[in-house]
Amino acid sequence: MAATVTKKKSKVTLQPLGDKVVVQREEQEEKTAGGIFLPDTAKDKPSRGTIVAVGTGKLLDDGTRGEMQVKKGDRVLFTSYAPETITIDDEEYLLMSESDVLAVIE
Fold first, then answer.
1. C-beta separation of 55 from 18 below 8 A
2. pLDDT in tens, 23-62
3. What is the value of pTM for the model shown?
4. How far apart, in whole angstroms, are the C-alpha atoms of residue 27 and residue 93?
């Protein structure tokens, strides 16, 4: 089942193809557990987020499509070096292969 990312004030539609997924990264922590506020340069970007759109699945050798293991709305952990960053109306999204998703957070 495919889904798209569409912003209400924008006419841009982002539909991932094949085994690609679109993820919206979770917000970064502004301060440490000890109460120290972090500047933007000191923050690590979190490697977790929420799936906002999925492709149709990987094309298999026999011509059929493999079923996606993740779905829209799943909270996931992903590799931090893999995603392609896309900005739509000042919102940042990540485009990556399903294989770059390491786990679903339940």
1. yes
2. 998 876 665 567 676 655 555 566 889 999 999 999 999 9
3. 0.74
4. 12
Long-range Cβ contact pairs of 82-86 (< 8 A, separation 24 or more): 83/23, 86/14, 86/22
pLDDT value at residue 29 = 62
Classify domain 5-27+43-105 by CATH architecture: Roll (2.30)
Name the residue with tokens 């919102």: 91
Q: What strands, in cross-sheet order, belong to the sheet with 48-54? A: 84-88, 91-97, 20-25, 48-54, 75-78, 101-105
How far apart, in whole angstroms, are the C-alpha atoms of residue 20 and residue 15? 9
Place of tokens 């340069």: 41
